[in-house]
């Protein structure tokens, strides 16, 4: 079995963007501003790996840039809050997944989001029955979130990553797809900044 993407390190982004725009902070809070001479008035933003990319017109002043970065971060956060389950919904989701794929044998005492896991996507403490998911998963596809939850649920039954552990996850039809998605996120975070396409 290849290296487990749940235990892969996603390095934080630092340094200038393709047009010299500085990134503020690190990890999931990092912001990269990309200026475009083709962009006249519109501002847009999206998540890329562990950072947020904000696209702005090249003529914008520093004060306008800072104001728009705040606006776009607030907008993205509001969208993600609407999409992501809270801790109670995570626990319900875990219970459904355990019933569907593990015959209900994995019964966590708690399932919650945490913000201090930047080197792994999820973790569990079998002795306490607790599962913690990295907030970096928020906004990722549902099948990826389900895979990470199932991965940690399986650890309540089997502590290591031996054949018996992977046999449990074989029941989930999107295991390989989810692993590929997470490996892609990690690989993208390690790439140097790629200059934008011509005209951006």
TrEMBL record:
It comes from Streptomyces glaucosporus. Residues 1-44 are annotated as: Disordered. PANTHER family: UNCHARACTERIZED PROTEIN YGJP, UTP PYROPHOSPHATASE. Gene3D superfamilies: Metalloproteases ('zincins'), catalytic domain. The lineage of its organism: Bacteria, Bacillati, Actinomycetota, Actinomycetes, Kitasatosporales. Residues 107-178 form the YgjP-like metallopeptidase domain. This is M48 family metallopeptidase. Transmembrane segments: none annotated. Residues 1-10 have a biased composition (Polar residues).
